[in-house]
Amino acid sequence: MPKMKTHRGAAKRIRKTGKGKFKFKRAGNRHCQSTHSKSTLRRNRDNAYIDDSNLKAVKAMLPY
Using 50, 70 and 90 to split pLDDT, how confident is the model at 43? Predict the structure, then answer.
């Protein structure tokens, strides 16, 4: 069986934490933030974690 390939786009955006969760940075923080609500800006400020419903797909993209 050959090695599985890592999805390079996902590898650049998602990091695995020490406890096995997958962490990513939210989109929408670069420019044109004046049209966003204050709650959106607060939510986008911090990193987020992959939801359990998408965990199987992310693990397949990042096998190592």
Answer: very high
